[in-house]
Protein backbone atom coordinates (compact mmCIF):
# COMPACT_ATOMS: atom_id res chain seq x y z
CA UNK A 1 0.00 0.00 0.00
CA UNK A 2 1.28 3.41 -0.95
CA UNK A 3 1.33 5.95 1.85
CA UNK A 4 -0.47 9.18 1.09
CA UNK A 5 1.38 11.12 3.81
CA UNK A 6 3.75 13.72 2.43
CA UNK A 7 6.34 15.46 4.66
CA UNK A 8 5.91 19.21 5.02
CA UNK A 9 9.61 19.67 5.73
CA UNK A 10 11.69 20.07 2.58
CA UNK A 11 15.07 18.36 2.28
CA UNK A 12 16.80 21.74 1.96
CA UNK A 13 15.10 23.03 5.11
CA UNK A 14 16.06 19.88 7.00
CA UNK A 15 19.61 20.22 5.76
CA UNK A 16 19.83 23.86 6.87
CA UNK A 17 18.47 22.96 10.30
CA UNK A 18 21.07 20.21 10.66
CA UNK A 19 23.89 22.59 9.72
CA UNK A 20 22.65 25.31 12.06
CA UNK A 21 22.49 22.89 14.99
CA UNK A 22 26.22 22.16 14.70
CA UNK A 23 29.31 24.37 14.86
CA UNK A 24 30.51 25.63 11.49
CA UNK A 25 32.99 23.22 9.84
CA UNK A 26 35.06 24.92 7.19
CA UNK A 27 36.28 22.14 4.94
CA UNK A 28 35.32 20.72 1.56
CA UNK A 29 34.30 17.29 2.90
CA UNK A 30 31.53 18.95 4.94
CA UNK A 31 30.07 20.47 1.77
CA UNK A 32 30.12 17.10 -0.02
CA UNK A 33 28.48 15.41 2.97
CA UNK A 34 25.77 18.09 3.02
CA UNK A 35 24.95 17.51 -0.64
CA UNK A 36 24.74 13.75 -0.09
CA UNK A 37 22.30 14.22 2.78
CA UNK A 38 20.18 16.55 0.66
CA UNK A 39 19.96 14.09 -2.24
CA UNK A 40 19.03 11.22 0.08
CA UNK A 41 16.28 13.32 1.66
CA UNK A 42 14.99 14.42 -1.74
CA UNK A 43 14.90 10.86 -3.12
CA UNK A 44 13.14 9.60 0.02
CA UNK A 45 10.54 12.34 -0.22
CA UNK A 46 9.87 11.61 -3.91
CA UNK A 47 9.53 7.86 -3.21
CA UNK A 48 6.94 8.52 -0.48
CA UNK A 49 5.04 11.33 -2.15
CA UNK A 50 1.28 11.22 -2.65
CA UNK A 51 0.71 9.92 -6.20
CA UNK A 52 -2.48 12.00 -6.36
CA UNK A 53 -0.55 15.12 -5.38
CA UNK A 54 3.02 14.67 -6.61
CA UNK A 55 5.78 17.25 -6.30
CA UNK A 56 5.83 19.58 -9.27
CA UNK A 57 8.91 20.78 -11.12
CA UNK A 58 8.78 24.19 -9.47
CA UNK A 59 8.98 22.60 -6.01
CA UNK A 60 11.96 20.46 -6.97
CA UNK A 61 13.69 23.45 -8.58
CA UNK A 62 13.07 25.52 -5.45
CA UNK A 63 14.65 22.88 -3.25
CA UNK A 64 17.67 22.60 -5.57
CA UNK A 65 18.07 26.38 -5.32
CA UNK A 66 17.99 26.10 -1.53
CA UNK A 67 20.75 23.48 -1.73
CA UNK A 68 22.87 25.85 -3.83
CA UNK A 69 22.36 28.57 -1.22
CA UNK A 70 23.36 26.31 1.67
CA UNK A 71 26.47 24.95 -0.06
CA UNK A 72 27.39 28.45 -1.25
CA UNK A 73 27.32 29.77 2.31
CA UNK A 74 29.48 26.84 3.41
CA UNK A 75 32.08 27.65 0.75
CA UNK A 76 31.95 31.33 1.69
CA UNK A 77 32.70 30.42 5.30
CA UNK A 78 35.75 28.47 4.13
CA UNK A 79 37.00 31.48 2.16
CA UNK A 80 36.40 33.95 5.01
CA UNK A 81 38.23 31.69 7.48
CA UNK A 82 41.21 31.49 5.12
CA UNK A 83 41.27 35.29 4.80
CA UNK A 84 41.03 35.67 8.58
CA UNK A 85 43.95 33.29 9.14
CA UNK A 86 46.01 35.18 6.56
CA UNK A 87 45.28 38.55 8.21
CA UNK A 88 46.28 37.21 11.64
CA UNK A 89 49.57 35.94 10.21
CA UNK A 90 50.27 39.30 8.56
CA UNK A 91 49.53 41.13 11.83
CA UNK A 92 51.98 38.93 13.70
CA UNK A 93 54.67 39.51 11.06
CA UNK A 94 54.19 43.28 11.11
CA UNK A 95 54.18 43.40 14.91
CA UNK A 96 57.34 41.29 15.17
CA UNK A 97 59.23 43.68 12.89
CA UNK A 98 58.52 46.50 15.38
CA UNK A 99 60.32 44.84 18.32
CA UNK A 100 63.07 47.16 19.56
CA UNK A 101 61.48 50.26 18.00
CA UNK A 102 60.01 53.18 19.91
CA UNK A 103 56.35 53.96 19.22
CA UNK A 104 53.67 56.39 20.26
CA UNK A 105 50.37 54.77 21.20
CA UNK A 106 47.09 55.96 22.66
CA UNK A 107 47.56 56.42 26.40
CA UNK A 108 48.45 58.91 29.11
CA UNK A 109 51.32 57.06 30.81
CA UNK A 110 54.91 58.32 30.85
CA UNK A 111 57.85 56.18 31.99
CA UNK A 112 60.71 57.96 33.78
CA UNK A 113 64.08 56.18 33.59
CA UNK A 114 67.50 57.62 34.51
CA UNK A 115 66.08 61.13 34.68
CA UNK A 116 64.54 61.11 31.20
CA UNK A 117 61.05 60.50 29.84
CA UNK A 118 59.21 61.08 26.58
CA UNK A 119 55.57 61.56 25.75
CA UNK A 120 53.40 62.99 23.03
CA UNK A 121 50.02 64.33 22.08
CA UNK A 122 47.95 64.84 18.96
CA UNK A 123 45.94 67.97 18.27
CA UNK A 124 43.15 68.57 15.79
CA UNK A 125 44.39 72.11 15.08
CA UNK A 126 47.39 74.33 15.75
CA UNK A 127 47.70 75.70 19.28
CA UNK A 128 49.38 78.92 20.41
CA UNK A 129 50.05 77.38 23.82
CA UNK A 130 50.52 73.77 24.97
CA UNK A 131 50.92 72.71 28.59
CA UNK A 132 51.65 69.23 29.98
CA UNK A 133 50.84 68.34 33.59
CA UNK A 134 52.61 65.29 35.06
CA UNK A 135 51.16 63.32 38.00
CA UNK A 136 52.46 60.58 40.28
CA UNK A 137 50.68 57.27 40.95
CA UNK A 138 48.67 58.87 43.77
CA UNK A 139 47.39 61.57 41.43
CA UNK A 140 49.53 64.33 42.90
CA UNK A 141 50.84 67.03 40.55
CA UNK A 142 54.60 66.60 40.06
CA UNK A 143 55.41 69.13 37.36
CA UNK A 144 53.77 71.39 34.81
CA UNK A 145 55.74 71.92 31.60
CA UNK A 146 54.97 74.79 29.21
CA UNK A 147 55.80 73.72 25.66
CA UNK A 148 54.85 76.90 23.81
CA UNK A 149 53.14 76.76 20.42
CA UNK A 150 52.23 73.37 18.94
CA UNK A 151 51.36 72.63 15.31
CA UNK A 152 48.37 70.52 14.35
CA UNK A 153 49.02 66.80 14.38
CA UNK A 154 51.48 64.74 16.43
CA UNK A 155 53.76 66.53 18.89
CA UNK A 156 56.46 65.02 21.13
CA UNK A 157 57.96 66.34 24.37
CA UNK A 158 60.77 65.47 26.79
CA UNK A 159 60.64 65.54 30.58
CA UNK A 160 63.92 65.90 32.45
CA UNK A 161 62.57 64.01 35.44
CA UNK A 162 62.51 67.00 37.80
CA UNK A 163 59.54 68.08 39.87
CA UNK A 164 58.19 71.61 40.31
CA UNK A 165 60.89 72.35 42.95
CA UNK A 166 63.74 71.19 40.74
CA UNK A 167 64.32 67.94 42.63
CA UNK A 168 64.82 64.69 40.76
CA UNK A 169 61.71 62.49 40.73
CA UNK A 170 62.03 58.75 41.30
CA UNK A 171 62.11 56.48 38.29
CA UNK A 172 58.79 54.83 37.52
CA UNK A 173 55.52 55.25 35.68
CA UNK A 174 53.67 58.56 35.84
CA UNK A 175 50.63 59.95 34.03
CA UNK A 176 50.11 63.22 32.22
CA UNK A 177 47.38 65.42 30.77
CA UNK A 178 47.57 67.97 27.97
CA UNK A 179 45.99 71.41 27.73
CA UNK A 180 46.20 73.20 24.37
CA UNK A 181 44.80 76.66 23.63
CA UNK A 182 44.40 78.78 20.52
CA UNK A 183 43.09 82.35 20.74
CA UNK A 184 41.58 81.80 24.18
CA UNK A 185 39.73 78.63 23.12
CA UNK A 186 40.71 75.08 23.99
CA UNK A 187 41.99 72.83 21.22
CA UNK A 188 41.18 69.13 21.43
CA UNK A 189 44.29 67.08 22.22
CA UNK A 190 44.82 63.34 22.72
CA UNK A 191 47.58 62.06 24.99
CA UNK A 192 50.09 59.64 23.43
CA UNK A 193 52.28 57.28 25.42
CA UNK A 194 55.85 56.51 24.31
CA UNK A 195 57.50 53.14 24.78
CA UNK A 196 59.74 50.52 23.24
CA UNK A 197 58.11 47.45 21.71
CA UNK A 198 59.45 44.63 23.90
CA UNK A 199 57.50 41.60 22.73
CA UNK A 200 54.57 40.38 20.61
CA UNK A 201 51.84 38.02 21.77
CA UNK A 202 49.65 36.06 19.35
CA UNK A 203 46.02 35.24 20.16
CA UNK A 204 42.89 34.16 18.30
CA UNK A 205 41.84 37.80 17.98
CA UNK A 206 45.16 39.04 16.62
CA UNK A 207 48.60 40.16 17.72
CA UNK A 208 49.17 42.39 20.75
CA UNK A 209 52.40 44.05 21.86
CA UNK A 210 54.12 44.93 25.11
CA UNK A 211 55.06 48.63 24.78
CA UNK A 212 57.08 49.91 27.71
CA UNK A 213 54.90 49.42 30.79
CA UNK A 214 51.75 49.15 28.65
CA UNK A 215 50.50 45.69 27.64
CA UNK A 216 47.88 44.47 25.19
CA UNK A 217 48.63 47.15 22.57
CA UNK A 218 47.19 46.41 19.13
CA UNK A 219 48.53 47.61 15.79
CA UNK A 220 45.56 49.96 15.41
CA UNK A 221 46.64 51.80 18.58
CA UNK A 222 50.06 52.66 17.19
CA UNK A 223 50.01 56.28 16.07
CA UNK A 224 53.65 56.73 15.11
CA UNK A 225 56.81 54.59 14.86
CA UNK A 226 59.95 56.48 15.88
- Total helical elements: 3
Helix share bin: 25-40%
List the uncertain runs. 1-8, 19-26
- The Rg value, from CA coordinates, equals 31 Å
The strand count comes to 12
What's the CATH class label of the largest domain? Mainly Beta
Task: State the distance separating the first and last CA atoms.
Answer: 84 Å
**At the third CATH level, what is the topology name of the largest domain?**
Immunoglobulin-like
How would a textbook summarize the main sheet?
7 strands, antiparallel
> What is the overall pLDDT average?
80
Known CATH architecture of the largest domain:
Sandwich
Q: What is the domain tally? A: 2
Q: Per DSSP, what share of the residues sits in E-state strands of 2 or more residues?
A: 35-45%
Spell out the helices and strands N to C: HHHEEEEEEEEEEEE
- Structural class call reads alpha+beta
Overall, the morphology is elongated
Description:
The structure is a single chain. With about 230 residues, this protein is an alpha+beta fold. It has 2 domains: about 10-95, no CATH class; about 100-225, Immunoglobulin-like. The chain is about 30% helix and about 40% strand. It has 3 helices and 12 strands; from the N terminus they run αααββββββββββββ. The protein has helices at about 10-20, 30-45, 55-95; strands spanning about 100-105, 110, 115-125, 125-135, 140-150, 155-160, 170-180, 185, 190-205, 205-210, 215, 220-225. Strand 7 (about 170-180) and strand 8 form a beta hairpin. The N and C termini lie far apart (about 85 Å). The model is unreliable at about 1-10 and about 20-25 (pLDDT under 50).
Amino acid sequence: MISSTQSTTTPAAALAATMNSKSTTTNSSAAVSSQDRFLKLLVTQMQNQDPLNPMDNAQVTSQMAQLSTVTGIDKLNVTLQALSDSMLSNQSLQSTSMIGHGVLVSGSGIDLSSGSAMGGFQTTAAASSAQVSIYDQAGGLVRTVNLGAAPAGINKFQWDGKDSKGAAAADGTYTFSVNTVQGGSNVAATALQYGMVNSVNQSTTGATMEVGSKSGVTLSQVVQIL
